[in-house]
Amino acid sequence: MEILRISMLIAILTFAAASAATYLNVLGPVSGTIYNNGSIYLGRIAPGESFYILANASTDNSTGAYINIGWDSLKTIDMPNGWSSQSSPLYENPMKMKVTVSPDTPIGNYSIVVRAINVQNYSHIGNLTFTAFVNVTPDVFSLEVTPLVIHAGLGQPAVLGIIINNTGISDDPFVISARGLPAWNVSEQAISLHGTVGTFTYPIFLEEPGAYTFNLTVNSATSPLVTKSYPITFYVNESLPNDYAAVGQGAAISPVIFEPAYAFMSFLSYIYSIISS
Fold this sequence. Notes:
The chain is an alpha+beta fold. It has helices spanning 2-20, 240-248, 259-276; strands at residues 23-28, 32-35, 38-45, 50-55, 59-60, 66-67, 73-78, 84-86, 95-100, 108-117, 128-136, 141-146, 149-152, 158-166, 174-179, 187-190, 197-204, 210-220, 227-236. A five-stranded antiparallel beta sheet has the order 2-1-4-9-8, with no helix packed on it. A five-stranded mixed beta sheet has the order 13-19-18-15-16. A four-stranded mixed beta sheet has the order 3-11-10-7, with no helix packed on it.
């Protein structure tokens, strides 16, 4: 019984000490409360990409008193060879520190040591140091492209729908491009922030009739290892059914009053494709 009382007392004292200790509220790329010499897992990042650590500048002192701007800056004090970082500006709230992974970093798990600084210990809370873990891998997003077969008339745009699910912690942009088409070299940048799903469109057209096979490719603007492709078949000619099929894929741009006609034209194209198959 006495041992139980002592154990409960130790637990209460430990909780009280933790509740009165200074802490750091991390806001991104994941959220969590960290105490001195603590640790946090941030997520996945590709070689060559950058990510940001965001943290609130507010904290409590050793007596539990709230301090609005307790931390003045966030910076790294140790990281893998070849990596670089930019400390957060002084007195920024929330603090935002940038870390860039070396493009030569092998796949694996890595850690960086980060310090929240109270300049000249003005608030009498000292500094807070913690370790952040990341998984370096090129597998940081998933991709969906529709449709995989498109039809269009000469010079008439067909539109591809693209869904990028950014499962990494980088906010670096993606680049959408079509590779394998004659006389076509159009790339578009897409921003899909970490932990979000972005939906984009990519219009494409050609001036020469024919059946073309190409790859719709999405890759990281900063890491050549981060890339995914979908094979697309593109039929381009002057036939009326193909013009109707292109309308069904969103190529026509005209007043709303014509939309019922476009729907009917697309339906005719569908019927034609069934009859001719």
